[in-house]
TrEMBL record:
Transmembrane segments: none annotated. This is Cyclin. It comes from the Eukaryota. One of its GO terms (molecular function) is protein kinase binding. GO terms for biological process: cell division. Belongs to the cyclin family. Cyclin U/P subfamily. Keywords: Cell cycle, Cell division, Cyclin. Residues 152-175 are annotated as: Disordered. SUPFAM superfamilies: Cyclin-like. Gene3D superfamilies: Cyclin-like. It holds the Pfam family Cyclin.
Length: 175
């Protein structure tokens, strides 16, 4: 079975193709980073000091990290966000650009199964607020994200990500 046929079967027929591409790219990234993280954890666990292991772990933990990986796949999560957030498909493209920028600005924080869901809902929320004429409040995006955000850290914890993005540029008004 070719890869695109597999993607087509996982996403609903109403989903724009950009969602399938985005979820596929994110899933590949998460799979690679999870493999790399497990190797780092094994190396740190065999190191001579507990302090080295603790330092390694603290460098990678952020407010976006969960205690365990959610049971929902990246593809299902993208579909869920698209269904309930009512944002335009272009928000997902911009959200991916935000994630790419995050990766380059924070190379010590790989996107893994422990943080991809929170990073994704936060980046889509920021993109929707930037691009779309109508959008929801942070609490609603937390519920769309599965509700765990409302209990643990609010989706608004992603404000540092938003603060690192360039300000919106508006064309000068014509007079």
């Amino acid at each position: 079975m070719r890869a695109s046929a597999k993607l087509d079967s996982e996403m609903s027929e109403d989903s724009p193709r950009v969602l399938m591409v985005l979820s596929s790219l994110l899933q590949k990234m998460v799979t690679e980073n999870d493999k790399h993280a497990s190797v780092l954890d094994a190396d740190a666990a065999t190191s001579s000091t507990l302090a080295t292991h603790a330092t390694t772990m603290m460098q990678r933990l952020t407010v976006f990290h969960g205690h365990r990986a959610p049971s929902i796949s990246v593809e299902q999560y993208v579909e869920r966000i698209f269904k309930y957030a009512n944002c335009s498909p272009s928000c997902f493209v911009v959200a991916y650009a935000y994630l790419d920028r995050f990766i380059h600005q924070q190379p010590g924080i790989p996107i893994t199964s422990l943080n991809v869901h929170r990073l994704l809902i936060t980046s889509v929320m920021v993109a929707a607020k930037f691009l779309d004429d109508s959008y929801y409040n942070n609490a609603y995006y937390g519920k769309v994200g599965g509700g765990e955000h409302a209990r643990d850290e609010p989706v608004g914890a992603g404000v540092p990500l938003q603060a690192r993005l360039p300000p919106a540029r508006h064309p000068p008004s014509l007079r």
